[in-house]
Each structure stands twice: as structure tokens, then as C-alpha cells.
Amino acid sequence: MDSDGRDGLGGLDRLDERVAGCRACPRLVAWREEVARTKRAAFADWTYWGRPVPGFGPPDARLLIVGLAPAAHGGNRTGRMFTGDRSGDVLYQALYDVGLASQPTAVSADDGLELRGARVTSPVHCAPPANKPTPEERDTCRPWLVRELNLLRPTLRAVVVLGAFGWQAALPAFAEAGWTVPRPRPAFAHGARVVLDGPAGPAGPRDTGSAALHLFGCFHVSQRNTFTGRLTPVMLREVLRTAAEAAGLYGTK
Question: Using CA atoms, how far apart are residues 69 and 140, in angstroms rounded to an integer?
């Protein structure tokens, strides 16, 4: 471990570099690169990112938002989580509405968007065919999320998980990062709220160590959910605002 208490990866910037260079899952590598070559007609003039997409947001985030995986013509095209697709349109508008984003749109990695006290990541960093990673791919990618959690530990106080897949993928990562996940594992539901006790500090159980983590469930911002009204902007804002309050973020609208 580094002298500053981090896990030896050189901080989130170094972790993001390592994530972007990963080639661990042959099916995902082949798919993301094929999409980047063939493109979608509407984006024919784009040079696609075509690599794993790292997390996005400040290194001292108090709130983490965990999705599923990058979209083939969204994050896989732009190189930034939830950027350039309709799911991102919904998410960043809501983040802006509650004061956690500097602007309501996310179209490219250089569009000037900044997150305020929040970071966005996924349990799977490559765009998967049909938006469905396999359980093996999910598990192979988990160490990246565990390392991200370890690096965010000093400030992280709340997490919003989008969708059941993300929930199932994230719970083992929280456990590996040292938080206590209840048994039986809590079930996913929109509006679910679970408090995960933090790891004991280096002096043992009497040392409070890391703070507890407030975990929130939210329906995913997929087109299927938002077009059908299963997830409305009001519902999304409510979860984000509640999570921001639990994280101790002030100035939210």
C-alpha cells in the first residue's frame, strides 16, 4: 500500500488508465472493437473509443452511482460513462436537477461536464452484446470496482445502484472492499435502502475505521424503463436527492 494509504495503484487516474487497457474478456474485446469499426450510420464521422470505459467523477466523491455496462454507441463511442446515449440523457439531466452535475447534457468526453461530489461507474467496463454481460464477465471485471471502492473509501458515504444486475454485481464488491453486507443479501428494489457497516480500523473492532455506506436501489435508466414510465424523472430525482443527503452533500436542489 502507498504511504498515503491507497492501494498502490497511484490513485483513480492510474486505475482509470489500467481499466482502459484491459483485455481480459475475449468476447467483450471482440464486440467492442467490432462496433468501433462498423459504427452506427448516425456516428459515421466519429472515431469510436472502442475500449473499456473507466469511471467518471472526482476522486473525493461522497456519492457513487453504479450502472450496468457502457452502451455500444454511447460510452463505447465517447469514452465516458453514460455519455452519448438516451440513458445518459436521463441520468445527467437528473443529476443536474439535484445539483450534482454542472450541466444537464453529456455528449462527449470533452463537453465540459463536471460532477459535483458524485462519481459514475459500472461493474462491467466494456460494452457487451445485447447489453448482457455474462456472469463470468461480471466476475472478471469485479476487481476493478473493488479497487475503485478502496480508493474512494475516505470520502464515500452513499451508493445508488441502477438495476438488479448492478445490485447483484455490486454487493460482492462491497464485501470484498471490506463493508459488511447483510445475510441473506438484501434484495433489489426501487427505493431500497440498506446501511452497510464499514470495515474496522487498523486498531481492531474498537477503531471505527471506514464510515458506514448507505446503499440505495433505483430502476435502471434504460430506454425500456424510461419510455414505459416504470422509471420517471421524479422517481429518479427522489432517489438521487435522498442519496445525496445521506452522503452529506449540500446545496442540492
Answer: 13
Q: Are 223 and 190 in contact (CB under 8 A)?
A: no
CA 135, 151, 165: angle at the middle one, nearest 5? 25
Residue 68: name the closest of 176, 222, 199 by CA: 222
pLDDT digits (tens, 9 = 90+) for 158-215: 999 999 999 999 999 999 999 999 999 999 999 999 999 987 554 444 434 568 999 9
What values do phi and psi take at 136, rounded to 5? Answer: -65, -40
User: Residues 6 or more apart from 160 whose CB is under 8 A from it?
Assistant: 63, 64, 65, 66, 216, 217, 218, 239, 240, 243
**Residue 229 three-state SS:** coil
- Rounded (10°) CA dihedral 11, 12, 18, 22: 150
Continuous H helices in the chain: 11-20, 26-38, 75-78, 86-97, 135-152, 164-176, 223-228, 233-246
- pTM, whole model, 2 decimals? 0.91
What is the distance between the terminal CA atoms of the chain, rounded to a whole angstrom? 39
Residue 31 CA, chain-centre distance (Å), reads: 21
118: part of which helix (H) or strand (E)?
Answer: strand 118-121
**pLDDT tens digits for range 19-46:** 999 999 999 999 999 999 999 999 999 9
Q: Are 188 and 168 in contact (CB under 8 A)?
A: yes
Which domains does the chain carry? Answer: 11-246 (3.40.470.10)
